[in-house]
Amino acid sequence: MESATQKLKNSILYLAFLYAVLYLLHTFILHKLLIGNQPLRVKKNPDRPLRFRSDGTFKILQVADLHYGNGAVTRCRDVLESDFKYCSDLNSTQFLKTMLEAEKPDFIAFTGDNIFGSSATDAAESLLKAFGPAMESRIPWAAVLGNHDQESTMNREELMFFLSLMDYSVAQTNPPAEDFSNIDKGGRKKHIDGFGNYNVRVYGPPGSHLANSSILNLFFLDSGDRETVQGHRTYGWIKESQLHWLRGFGQAFHQGQKQNLDHSHDALIPTSPPALVFFHIPIPEIPQLFYQKYVGQFQEAVACSRVNSGVLQTLVALKDVKAVFMGHDHTNDFCGNLDGIWFCYGGGFGYHGYGKAGWPRRARVISLELGKGKKDWTGVQRIKTWKHLDDGKLSKIDEQVLWEWQSPR
Question: Which CDD domains match (predicted)?
C-alpha cells in the first residue's frame, strides 16, 4: 500500500515538474518569439517578377507624406472643421483604401515620411497600421524614408529592414550582394550611404515575347533626413556613393540588355527601357521650375538641401530616366521638366502632415502603356500621370503625358 502511495506522489510531483517547465518555457522563452502578441510567420510575398498586365498597362500609385501617427487618437492638421466632424490618421487610411479600390494599381510607391516619428509612440506598430491597406490589398509595394520616419523608436536602418520584411513589400535595405554594379575590382562590396537604395524591375506581359525581359526600371534612393554643413542645418541629400551605384547599375544593365535584345528582330522594341526614380527630398534645381512651365500648383518654397551633389547631371547622363517622383513639400503637387526629365511632387497625402485648410489631400497615379506591333507588344510607349483629390468625389486633375517613345527613322 505504501509503495502505491509513494508511486502516486512521485507521479504528481513529476506532472507538477512538467507543468512548471512548460509554464517557464511559455513565460520566459516563447514570448520572445512574439511580435505584437502575434506569433512569427513567414512573410507573404507578391508574385514575382513584377510585370505588365495582359492589356499592356502598368499602373503605380504614389503615396507621398502619409505622416501616420498613432491611429484614431492622432488628430488631423490643417483641415476645415466643416469638412470633418472628427479627423484622425484613420482618414489617411480610408483615403488609401479608396485609392486602391478606385485605381486598382499594380504597384504602390511610398515616397517618405510614411510615419510622423515625433507622433508615433511605437514605430513598428505605426508602420503596420500605416502600410496595413497595402498589405491587405496584396498589391506589391515599396518605400523610401523621409526626414521624419526615424524620429520614433527605430533608426533608419532598422526601419528599412522592418519594411523589407512586411507582407507584399519589395523594398530592400540596400542592393543585394548579387548586384555586381556595387562590387569593386577587388570583389569587395562597396559602401553605399543611406538605407533604401535599390532597384525594382518590371517585366513584360505574361505569354508575350517580352515576358522574360525587364522593360521598366524603378529606382529608389534614400535622400536622408537632416545634416549640418559648415555650421548650418540643412536637409539631407543623395550622396556620391549612391550615384556611383546608380551609374554602375545602368552600365551593367545595358550590357546585359543588349545581349538579350541582340536576338530580337523587331526594330520597334526600345533597346533601352525607361526608368522612373523615387526619393523624398527635392534636389536643389527644383526651385528653377517656378519660372518655367509646370503642371499643377507651386504653393510653397522648395525645402531642399544646401548641397548639390550632382543628382540631375547623373540622371541625365543615364539617358533612361524619364521622370522622378518626390514628396516633402506637401502643398506642392506640380510636375516640371529639367533637362528632359520630369520632376513630380506627389502632394500631401496624409492628414497628420501639414497641409492647407480647404486644399484636399491628394495622391498621384503613374500609368505606363506598351506599344503594339503587328504581332506583339513593342516595349513602353507612353508614360502618363494624374492626381486624385480626397474631396468626396475623388476628382481627377492635371492629367498629362510625361514621355512618349518615338521610333527611330
Answer: MPP_Dcr2 (cd07383)
Contact 140, 108 (CB under 8 A): yes
- Residues 338, 343, 345, 346: what is their CA dihedral angle, to the nearest 10 degrees? 160
SS3 40: coil
**Angstrom distance (rounded) from CA 166 to CA 152:** 18
Helix%, strand%, coil% for the chain, nearest 5: 30, 25, 45
345, 112 contact by CB (below 8 A):
no
- 154 contact partners, CB below 8 Å, separation of at least 6: 123, 124, 162
Neighbour-count burial of 392, counting CB atoms closer than 10 A to its CB (0-12 exposed, 13-18 middle, 19+ buried) = exposed
Residue 370, classified by CB atoms within 10 Å of its CB into exposed (0-12), middle (13-18) or buried (19+), is buried
Between strands 321-326 and 232-235, the pairing is unpaired
pTM to 2 decimal places: 0.87
Q: Let me know how long the chain is.
A: 409
**DSSP reduced 3-state for 393:** coil
Q: Taking Cα atoms as reference points, which of 194, 174, 155 lies closest to residue 309?
A: 194
Whole-number pLDDT of residue 256: 59
pLDDT in tens, 219-259: 999 999 999 999 999 999 999 999 999 999 877 766 655 55
State the sign of the Cα–Cα–Cα–Cα dihedral 41, 47, 48, 50: negative
Torsion of CA 24, 25, 28, 33, to 10 degrees: -160
pLDDT digits (tens, 9 = 90+) for 33-83: 455 555 667 899 998 899 999 999 999 999 999 999 999 999 999 999 988
